[in-house]
Amino acid sequence: MTKCVVLADPRGFCAGVDRAILTVQTILKAAQKSGKLVREDGLPPVYVRRQIVHNKHVVEDLASQGAVFVQELSEIPDAAAQAGIPVVFSAHGVSPSVKDEAKRRGMHVVDATCPLVGKVHREVLRFVREGYEIIYIGHKGHDEAVGVVGESPEHVHLIEHADDVATLDFTPETKLVLLSQTTLSVDETAGTIAALKARFPWIEEPPSSDICYATSNRQAAVKLVAQQSDCVVIVGSANSSNSVRLMEVAQEGLGDRGTAYRVDDANELEPAWFDGVESVGVSSGASVPDELVSGVIAALQDRGFTGMKSVETIKENMHFVLPAELRRQPSRA
Ligand code: SF4
Fold first, then answer.
1. pLDDT in single tens digits along all 333 residues of the chain
2. Phi and psi based region of residue 141 (left: phi greater than 0; alpha: psi -120 to 50; beta: remaining)
3. Collapsing DSSP states into helix, strand and coil, what is residue 150?
4. 91 CA from centroid of ligand 1 (Å)
5. Is residue 144 flagged as an active site residue?
6. From CA 10, how far away is CA 221, in angstroms rounded?
7. Atom 7 (ligand 1): residue with closest C-alpha?
8. How far is it, in rounded angstroms, from Cα 298 to Cα 160?
9. CA 17 to centroid of ligand 1, rounded, Å
10. Which family would the database say this protein is a member of (predicted)?
């Protein structure tokens, strides 16, 4: 029997990641056209706060083209604000305190927050205005969760798992609503929601799930892939929430039959993973360029996995326009 690769579709880039990367590329391209890619004052053409998307290859590529990545706005000199150098906020969003700091320092902000993350920020503001306490399911310390909780730290209560529900204490007089990070595991979150409803039967949910279309679609596809594979390789960085969730979903689908691995690229594949394996499932997180998946497939082909099967669950056609700050620019890519 031919050993084969079972490829998940959809996989890889989502509309929010696509837009965030294009945002930085558009600024770089405009700087190049106007001859300001290498400036006399030594300032870069663009700063990006945090990783624009959680993928080290994407970040390294944009950095090699001139973008400078910082963790905090304090690392950006005042001269950059005075010179009008753009500062891009990443796809994961920021808390209001970051926006306030940028405004106070007169920075030229281009906000590449994914519109679906922006939707959760707006939900927080609306529900707080209406007198709700918000239970937010997310990962402590993740950029997206930090930004959302920062909208109203006193009214947003972050929990990670069903076990955390026991730590919450609200009386039935408290208006309660649950929101969540966009990149959670659909199945695990359903368990946490069930635990919340059991403890607080009056808790309300937003009109539509906060887990985004890209996260749910990639998880549904990898679930089917895992059922047809002996092991699964997920391409994605360790700090990419949706990539790590994909690996967990794949592992659940495999059960005791095999193991799901996560790699940044083909260099991290271990030969021992494929001993006795006939079919390898492959997928990638929403922040992963498809050439990294092609590299993994090529490496697997070199190891004898020459057959190829695609498991397609849905066709995606989501697209987000560039941030308003860039739409007026004629140099748009
Ligand atoms: S994974 Fe979802 S929320 Fe995150 S950037 Fe992509 S579309 Fe937006």
1. 799 999 999 999 999 999 999 999 999 999 999 988 888 899 999 999 999 999 999 999 999 999 999 999 999 999 999 999 999 999 999 999 999 999 999 999 999 999 999 999 999 999 999 999 999 999 999 999 999 999 999 999 999 999 999 999 999 999 999 999 999 999 999 999 999 999 999 999 998 999 999 999 999 999 999 999 999 999 999 999 999 999 999 999 999 999 999 999 999 999 999 999 999 999 999 999 999 999 999 999 999 999 999 999 999 999 999 999 998 654 433
2. left
3. coil
4. 8
5. yes
6. 7
7. 16
8. 37
9. 6
10. Belongs to the IspH family.
Kindly give, in sequence order, each residue whose CB lies less than 8 Å from that of residue 225, ignoring residues fewer than 6 positions away. Answer: 6, 7, 8, 232, 250, 253, 281, 282, 283, 311
Q: Which of 215, 283, 316, 320 to mutate to test the pocket of ligand 1 (most atoms within 8 A of CB)?
A: 215
Q: Residues lining ligand 1, judged by CB closer than 6 Å?
A: 14-17, 91, 114, 116-117, 182-183, 212, 214-215, 242, 286
Short-list 201, 154, 209, CA closest to 179 = 209
Nearest CA to ligand 1 atom 8: 16
The pair of three-digit structure tokens given for residue 135, joined into one six-digit string: 């239970």
Give the pair of three-digit tokens for residue 95: 């808390």
**How many whole angstroms from its chain centre is CA 68?**
20
Q: Which ligand 1 atom is nearest residue 16's CA?
A: 5
DSSP 3-state helix, strand, coil percentages of the chain (rounded to 5)? 45, 15, 40
Nearest residue (by CA) to ligand 1, atom 5, is 16
Contacts of 213 (CB under 8 A, 6+ apart): 14, 116, 316, 318
On the question of a cis peptide bond just before residue 10, with omega within 30 degrees of 0, the verdict is yes
